């Protein structure tokens, strides 16, 4: 797993790099029974209104059905192959259970074809195994963590992410998330041992605008280049800096503004909040 840099044969190639895909199993093909059609929305909701800007186009993709629950206990599974998934930054592993059933899971770093993984309370705390938090030793790195038992993995699913199991008390476990937040989670919730693979994903440089369009990302237009009817920063004679603190098209603060609900039910589960950028700036100015 690493980054491959192109020779500068053109302006786009000069600044482009790609993953070397060394962690993938050569010759592996997607499991047809686990593929589903994927329709594109262009950032529009069921009323046809744009709710997510700068989306549209992109290469056609098929969705891989991922088993985030890992509820098949007591049955070993052999890793058939590690494959590329166009729908996420992480790699996925195709598991083949002893009864012949196949499923995709998010592949932790170090998992390779031929390895055997287990699910359930009896599983050993080794890379690739999925078991409840109350059976995982303290200080272990985990990923693909459930927030509610049986609902499937929600946290730490993207490339290179991991959390650390800090403590256990009664029916709760405390985990330290990549953002620095420490959170309480029911100890019956499951997690996968290890760190999500493809950690070099963040170091890939697209190199040209076309590669961004292949991913379904449309151009991002500055607010100062718009008219006043389209953006709060728009209008004015000649070039301006906006004339106010940066805001979104809806007028909400774009830097340091609070976006979390004040009375969100899960607030009681947060032991220590992550350090926000705004808090750091305020502390710096004192």
TrEMBL record:
Taking every annotated instance into account, which residue ranges of this chain make up the domain Large ribosomal subunit protein uL2 C-terminal?
125-253
Domain of life, source organism: Bacteria
Give a GO cellular-component term. Answer: large ribosomal subunit
GO terms in the biological process aspect are: cytoplasmic translation
Q: Which UniProt keywords apply?
A: Ribonucleoprotein, Ribosomal protein, RNA-binding, rRNA-binding
Q: Where is the Large ribosomal subunit protein uL2 RNA-binding domain?
A: 43-119
Indicate, by first and last residue, each region the UniProt record lists as having compositional bias (Basic and acidic residues): 230-240
GO terms assigned for molecular function: rRNA binding; structural constituent of ribosome; transferase activity
Please list the residue ranges that the record marks as compositionally biased, kind Basic residues.
210-221, 260-286
Per the record, which residues fall in region Disordered?
Answer: 17-57, 210-286
Q: Would the keyword Repeat be found if you checked this record's keyword annotation?
A: no
Pfam families in the record:
Ribosomal_L2_C, Ribosomal_L2_N
Please name the NCBIfam families in this protein's record.
rplB_bact (TIGR01171)
The subunit structure is: Part of the 50S ribosomal subunit. Forms a bridge to the 30S subunit in the 70S ribosome.
Family the entry assigns: Belongs to the universal ribosomal protein uL2 family.
Free-text function comment from the UniProt entry? One of the primary rRNA binding proteins. Required for association of the 30S and 50S subunits to form the 70S ribosome, for tRNA binding and peptide bond formation. It has been suggested to have peptidyltransferase activity; this is somewhat controversial. Makes several contacts with the 16S rRNA in the 70S ribosome.
Q: Which HAMAP family match?
A: Ribosomal_uL2_B (MF_01320_B)
Would you tell me the protein name for this molecule? Large ribosomal subunit protein uL2
* Organism in which the protein naturally occurs: Rhodopirellula maiorica SM1
The gene behind this protein is rplB
């Amino acid at each position: 797993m690493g980054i491959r840099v192109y020779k500068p044969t053109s302006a786009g190639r000069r600044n482009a790099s790609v993953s070397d895909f060394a962690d993938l199993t050569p010759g592996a093909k997607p499991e047809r029974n686990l593929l589903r059609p994927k329709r594109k929305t262009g950032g529009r909701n069921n009323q046809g209104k744009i709710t997510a800007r700068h989306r549209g186009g992109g290469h056609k993709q098929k969705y891989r059905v991922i088993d985030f629950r890992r509820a098949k206990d007591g049955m070993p599974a052999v890793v058939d192959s590690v494959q590329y998934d166009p729908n996420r930054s992480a790699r996925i592993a195709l598991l083949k259970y002893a009864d012949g059933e196949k499923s995709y899971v998010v592949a932790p770093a170090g998992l390779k074809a031929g390895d055997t993984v287990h699910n359930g309370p009896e599983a050993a705390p080794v890379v690739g195994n999925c078991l409840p938090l109350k059976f995982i030793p303290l200080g272990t790195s985990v990923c693909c963590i459930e927030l509610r038992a049986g609902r499937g993995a929600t946290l730490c699913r993207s490339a290179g992410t991991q959390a650390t199991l800090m403590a256990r008390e009664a029916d709760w476990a405390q985990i330290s998330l990549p953002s620095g937040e420490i959170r309480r989670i029911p100890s019956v919730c499951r997690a996968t041992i290890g760190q999500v693979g493809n950690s070099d994903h963040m170091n890939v440089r697209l190199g040209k605008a076309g590669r961004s369009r292949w991913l379904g990302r449309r151009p991002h237009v500055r607010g100062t280049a718009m008219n006043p009817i389209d953006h709060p920063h728009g209008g004015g004679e000649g070039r301006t800096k906006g004339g106010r603190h940066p805001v979104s098209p809806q007028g909400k603060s774009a830097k340091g503004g609070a976006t979390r609900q004040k009375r969100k039910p899960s607030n009681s589960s947060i032991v220590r909040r992550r350090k926000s950028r705004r808090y750091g700036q305020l502390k710096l100015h004192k």
